[in-house]
Design goal:
Distance between the termini: 20 Å
Mean pLDDT: 93
Largest sheet: 6 strands, mixed
Low-confidence stretches: 222-226
Strand content: 25-35%
Structural class: alpha/beta
Helix content: 10-25%
Strand order of the largest sheet: 1-2-3-4-5-6
Order of helices and strands: EEEHEHHEHEEEEEEEHEEHH
Number of strands: 14
Radius of gyration: 16 Å
Number of helices: 7
Length: 226
């Protein structure tokens, strides 16, 4: 498994490329602000051919470069339908004050947009990625799991020591706690979490130390199979 990434732009949003190995096909996760050059560098370095862009949610800092990245390689973008409108109307995902700051930014959908659903299995680039709908940060937030390798791309659901904010349009604190309880807490402790911002962590570490996971725990219910 090859996973490489870098923090993109002023928001320091983690962008990842994922492939079975160097020299093979790959997927790109969350190409944010000014991510195009960094993505191209990783593709050249590892001799990768992208087949899709996967978006954990529609906030501007995660989708800023999706259209140029998809257009340069003629690949589709995958996003949950509840966040699809943010691809062409990024201001809708921010408070009015923030929206005013971003008012001059014009984004557009890539030519090929495909919609994600909870529990879907994406078979792309020789990988099998499970889609978990994890609303709370936005209505259409998702995470992507590689169950065989126990890796989770959590977007802005779960960070090392924290969780995504819930005070923007579409955010809801009770909803993100349910997402944490049903989609994170049932996972094995050694599941590696690659978040949308900040350093990687594990489910076990967050279960033991993250106050938000402790708050979510009473709502977890029976553990589901992985």
């Amino acid at each position: 498994m090859l996973i490489a990434g870098f923090p993109a732009g002023a928001f320091q949003t983690n962008c990842y490329v994922v492939a079975p190995a160097a020299g093979e096909e790959c997927v790109i996760v969350d190409p944010g602000q000014d991510a195009t050059e960094g993505v191209e560098e990783l593709l050249r370095e590892h001799r990768l051919k992208p087949v899709a862009v996967l978006l954990t949610h529609g906030h501007l800092d995660h989708v800023w470069s999706v259209a140029p990245v998809c257009g340069a390689r003629d690949v589709p973008a995958w996003i949950h339908p509840d966040d699809r409108h943010l691809l062409s109307d990024p201001a809708a995902g921010w408070s009015q004050t923030s929206a005013n700051l971003f008012g001059g930014i014009t984004l557009s959908e890539p030519d090929d947009v495909r919609e994600l659903s909870d529990g879907a299995v994406l078979r792309l680039a020789g990988l099998e990625l499970v889609v978990d709908h994890t609303p709370g940060h936005t209505r259409g937030s998702v995470s992507f799991r590689l169950p065989g390798d126990q890796i989770m791309f959590s977007g802005d659901l779960l960070f090392a020591g924290s969780i995504g904010r819930t005070d923007l349009p579409g955010g809801d604190y009770a909803t993100i706690l349910r997402s944490l309880a049903t989609k994170c807490l049932p996972l094995p402790d050694d599941t590696v979490v690659l978040p949308g911002h900040g350093p990687q962590t594990t489910i076990g570490r967050e279960r033991a130390t993250n106050p938000y996971l402790k708050e979510a725990a009473p709502h977890a219910g029976p553990t589901r199979g992985i």
